[in-house]
Write a structure and sequence with these properties.
By secondary structure, the chain is mainly alpha-helical. It has 15 helices and 8 strands. Strand 6 and strand 7 form a beta hairpin. The longest helix has 21 residues. The termini are far apart.
Length: about 400
């Protein structure tokens, strides 16, 4: 007798379905430790080339990293992220940014903003760990602490430059500055709001300034409409006595330690020649006479720097000293201390606008790169001028005769 056939099960066990192929290989190397491999192609001898990476974490996280590596390989990006902290990368970025194309004062401002706001917030984090949520939170916190719109905008601008370069360098796959959360809360560049003295305020200030030996410097500032760094950077060689004119062609700057240096003005059009009146020429002559007296008194201790405005040793004036004298004149004139040094420039522009001087002439005097900047910055005239314009248009259209 033959043995009866073994009964076959009615429902044979289903074969285990193979796991879906992943973009690369993953093999376990220990508790929460994986070896990830990405096929990169063939070498000259036809041998396969792989990129290998040890990953520490759970299985799902390892799969995510493997997918990320595969996507980077397809996009032609470097497979390995350099685990650079924001501080380390910012130091490299600012070093490359300081290549002579940016002004020294601009680089100094970037460093100052980073030390004050960015390094405390993100310095210890790697670039890949800084998210759009964290950046948006920084902006919100700064607004709650009443930081100026200009400060927040500068922080945003610097972050944008740093992360764009990091993306170019292949250190991040996704730029957090391009995410919706950042775009929605991103600060816009604030429009300049120049503050000018009114006619009577300017007269009171200049009258108070005339009672001080340093007063002529501020009278010249109002007359020229120059930036403070520009009139402090004037040298006697810039003054053409015979032609009665002065050429503005440099700015005086100070480094963090107090050392002074000069730079060309902001733009090519900032180099400009301005005619001088007999009154201003006499003021320059009187000022030079006083400076010669200081030089004789200083003797060998005098530094022949050539600047028009100097201290008792011939060195160019320090910013803090100029500000202190300026605030004393404001107090003498019973004017608010909220007026900044640059009010002389804004007051000059405002007075010329209200006097009906063509915008092109005002733009040339201020050294703006284009007339559009002058029109945008100094678009507000005094109410009396607006009222006069209203009265003139009424007369031109005979509006008063209607009805």
């Amino acid at each position: 007798m033959t043995e009866p056939d073994k009964a076959k099960p009615d429902n044979p066990p289903e074969k285990k379905k193979p796991e879906p192929r992943r973009p690369g290989g993953k093999s376990k190397r220990g508790p929460n430790k994986w070896l990830l491999r990405i096929f990169r192609g063939y070498d000259a001898a036809g041998k396969r080339i792989y990129y290998s990476e040890t990953f520490h974490g759970g299985s799902k996280d390892a799969d995510k990293r493997l997918t990320e590596l595969h996507n980077r390989h397809k996009a032609g990006l470097p497979l390995k992220f350099e685990a650079k902290t924001f501080k380390d990368y910012f130091d490299l970025w600012i070093e490359e940014a300081d290549n002579g194309k940016r002004r020294e004062a601009t680089i100094a401002q970037y460093k100052q903003m980073a030390e004050a706001y960015l390094i405390p917030s993100f310095g210890k984090f790697t670039l890949t760990d800084i998210t759009d949520v964290a950046i948006a939170r920084l902006y919100r916190d700064m607004r709650k602490q009443d930081y100026s719109p200009y400060t927040i905008h500068m922080v945003h601008a610097i972050l944008g430059m740093v992360f764009r370069q990091a993306e170019t360098d292949g250190l991040i796959l996704h730029n957090p500055m391009n995410k919706r959360k950042v775009r929605e809360i991103a600060p816009t560049k604030p429009k300049p709001q120049p503050v000018a003295m009114k006619g009577k305020e300017t007269q009171n200030f200049l009258e108070a300034a005339s009672r001080r030996p340093e007063g002529f410097m501020f009278a010249l500032a109002f007359f020229l409409g120059a930036r403070p760094t520009e009139y402090l950077g004037l040298k006697w060689a810039d003054v053409d006595v015979k032609a009665q004119r002065v050429t503005i062609q440099r700015s005086l700057k100070r480094r963090k330690g107090g050392e002074w240096y000069t730079t060309p003005p902001k733009t090519a059009k900032s180099v400009r020649t301005i005619p001088l009146t007999p009154t201003i020429m006499k003021g320059l002559e009187d000022h030079r006479r006083r400076q010669l007296e200081m030089r004789m008194k200083a003797g060998q201790g005098w530094t022949d720097s050539g600047f028009v405005f100097t201290d008792e040793a011939g060195e160019p004036l320090k910013w803090w000293w100029v500000t202190r004298v300026y605030r004393r004149i404001l107090a003498d004139a019973k004017l608010p201390l909220t007026f900044k040094l640059k009010v002389s420039r804004h007051s000059c522009a405002s007075a010329l606008l209200n006097a009906g001087v063509p915008l092109k002439m005002i733009s040339d005097r201020l050294g703006h790169s284009s007339i559009a900047i002058t029109a945008d910055v100094y678009s507000v005239v005094e109410e009396s001028q607006q009222r006069e314009a209203s009265e003139r248009i009424e007369q031109l259209f005979n509006i008063g005769k209607l009805g």
